[in-house]
Design a protein that fits this description.
Helices cover about 25% and strands about 20% of the residues. With about 160 residues, the protein is of the alpha/beta class. It has one domain. The strands form three sheets. It has a four-stranded parallel β-sheet, sandwiched between helices. A two-stranded antiparallel sheet has the order 3-4. A hairpin with a 7-residue loop joins strand 6 and strand 7.
């Protein structure tokens, strides 16, 4: 995937060096920092925006994917057994609003996250097993017409133009 040469890009905030993951760790990528330096990045952390703390217990989507959560057929549950679905839905709505407000037509999201995961998430068993599907935010962004790409599909060469 080639990052567009112009315009805003919605970006998982952890990719821009913000320590907002459930482990309070950044997942910094050089190309993301370049987007920040250019003033094109629109960093979002839907989980934090949805009211979850840093750090926080890991969570996974159970019995479906992000589209199923949006449609009320699946839930997001922490490893401690707490239902955090509403936090994920709120954060997804806020991220979608940020994309709309900024005019971002593309979102580059952190792989495998129950919020930001794109085409691959964990299966809800906390066993490290992966399954196909999007996280809650990625699913909503797709429904809103935003192109969603996993950070794993962007190489450092993709941002050189």
């Amino acid at each position: 995937m080639k990052i567009p040469e112009e315009g805003p890009v919605l970006l998982s905030a952890c990719l821009a060096g913000i320590a907002c993951t459930h482990e309070a760790q950044p997942k910094t990528r050089a190309w993301a920092l370049k987007l920040v330096a250019e003033g094109r990045a629109v960093p979002v952390c839907p989980e934090v925006a949805g009211g979850l703390p840093i750090p926080r217990p890991e969570a996974e989507i159970q019995q479906g994917d992000g589209a199923d959560v949006l449609d009320g057929r699946a839930r997001v549950v922490s490893i401690e057994g707490h239902d955090v679905t509403e936090n994920y839905l709120k954060g997804a709505r806020l991220a979608a609003a940020a994309a709309k407000r900024s005019g971002a037509e593309i979102a580059i999201m952190k792989a495998r996250s129950p919020s930001c995961g794109c085409a691959c998430i964990y299966d809800g068993t906390f066993s490290g097993t992966r399954r196909g599907g999007d996280g809650v935010t990625s699913a909503l962004l797709r429904r809103e017409g935003v192109a969603v790409v996993s950070d794993e599909n962007i190489g450092s060469e993709e941002i050189t133009y």
